[in-house]
Amino acid sequence: MVRIVCVANQKGGVGKTTTAINLAVGMAASGARTLLIDLDPQCNATSGLGQQPTPRHPLVKRDPIHESVVKTYAEGLELLPGSRSFQDVDALAKTPAAQAATLRTHLMSELEGYDQVLIDCPPSLGTLTQTALAASTEVLMPIQCEYFAMEGLTQMINVIRSVMQQHPGRLEFGGILLTMFDERFELTHEVDNEVRDFFGEIVFDTVIPRDVAVAEAPSHGIAAIDYDPRARGSRAYLELCMEVLGRD
């Protein structure tokens, strides 16, 4: 069965899209045929890989996915581009149950050629995120090491549990990822300890540090692990990729 990882958090600015891009590039580099689906109307995953958003989202048009994907600079990685069309956002979000069924049909019937599929979700708890969760086999949650991290995480987990109840036996917790880790701050260590004490082994061992190279890479249309492979953030994402693949 194709592994479909939903990268989701209801808060923006936590490294969600950056994580999706670097994981996708890292997985492709490992030899896995990989697809990244941009479901965020901001289309940052699309532009972060040097591609342009589409006028209409392929999932709205219900075109065959293999006709809509584009090749990226990374060998083995393809992208289903996002769309900034308000009409498409409304169409994807209008009827959650129907749209989830449509997306699941696309993923289950047309993605058998892929080893790894990642879905970059919008920063919300809305219907687009719930649709992506319902279509996935696991969810990866990046959270920033800040004061409100646990509060936001609890809300996200409640949504995930609701989707699990609606679609039993499909969605699993893939892991929680601590991002923007700054070891100089006491708050960072407090959040780290609190999250690990509460969630245990579900939290990835790897943490993603604050790193200028990670912030700069999207403006060049490539992943941080290719933009500056020696940067601390890049090395961390490579370690995360190995950890994620190890949990497959």
TrEMBL record:
Gene3D superfamilies: P-loop containing nucleotide triphosphate hydrolases. It comes from the Bacteria. Residues 3-167 form the AAA domain. InterPro entries: AAA_dom (IPR025669), DNA_Partitioning_ATPase (IPR050678), P-loop_NTPase (IPR027417). This is Cobyrinic acid ac-diamide synthase. It comes from Pirellula staleyi (strain ATCC 27377 / DSM 6068 / ICPB 4128) (Pirella staleyi).
